[in-house]
Amino acid sequence: MSITTKTGDKGYTSVAGRRVKKDSKIIEAIGTIDELQAIIEEVEIQKDLYEIMGAIACGNKITNYELRITNLENEIEKLEKKLKPVTKFLIFKKEKARKLNWVRTVVRRAERKVVALRNYKLRITNYELIVIYLNRLSDYFYLLSRQKE
C-alpha cells in the first residue's frame, strides 16, 4: 500500500475510523505529541507518547501512568537536589541544553493542546493522567536543560 492515498487532499484525515478536519483540536493534539516524540531521544518516553496518541485517537486505556508519573517525579527530585535554585531568567547557550529546552517547549504546547480537548466530547481514558504526565515531563526536560548548561 502506498503512503500516498490522496484521501487527505481535501483537508480531512482519518482517526479511529472517522474522518476529521486536519485543523481540528484532536489532530492538533495528536500532531503536537507526534512532533514531540520525533525530537525526544529517550525511547521509553517515545513509547509513552505513542500510547498517549492512541488514547486520544481511539480511547485506548493507558497503563501504569501513576507509576510513570511517580518515576518522573523521582527523577525531578534527584535533579533538583543537584541544581542550584534559579534566581534569574535562564538563557541556554550550550547546544544540548538548548535542544532540551526546545523539547520542554514542545511538551508544554502538547499539554496545552491536550487541555484544549477537555470539552471536545472524546472518549479519552485517563485524561487527567495524560495532562499530569505531560506537565511532569516538561518539568523534567526543564531540569535536564539546566543540568546540561
UniProtKB/TrEMBL annotation:
Catalytic reaction equation(s): 2 cob(II)yrinate a,c diamide + reduced [electron-transfer flavoprotein] + 2 ATP = 2 adenosylcob(III)yrinate a,c-diamide + 2 triphosphate + oxidized [electron-transfer flavoprotein] + 3 H(+); 2 cob(II)alamin + reduced [electron-transfer flavoprotein] + 2 ATP = 2 adenosylcob(III)alamin + 2 triphosphate + oxidized [electron-transfer flavoprotein] + 3 H(+)
Q: Which GO terms describe its molecular function?
A: ATP binding; corrinoid adenosyltransferase activity
Specify one Pfam family.
Cob_adeno_trans
Instruction: Write out the pathway annotation from the protein's UniProt entry.
Output: Cofactor biosynthesis; adenosylcobalamin biosynthesis; adenosylcobalamin from cob(II)yrinate a,c-diamide: step 2/7
* Keyword Transferase found: yes
Q: Which Gene Ontology BP terms does the record give?
A: cobalamin biosynthetic process
Taking every annotated instance into account, which residue ranges of this chain make up the domain Cobalamin adenosyltransferase-like? 3-146
The UniProt keywords, alphabetically, are: ATP-binding, Cobalamin biosynthesis, Coiled coil, Nucleotide-binding, Transferase
Point out the coiled-coil segments of this chain: 26-89
Q: What is its EC number?
A: 2.5.1.17
Protein family membership: Belongs to the Cob(I)alamin adenosyltransferase family.
Query: What's the protein name?
Result: Corrinoid adenosyltransferase
Q: Lineage of the source organism?
A: Bacteria, Candidatus Shapironibacteriota
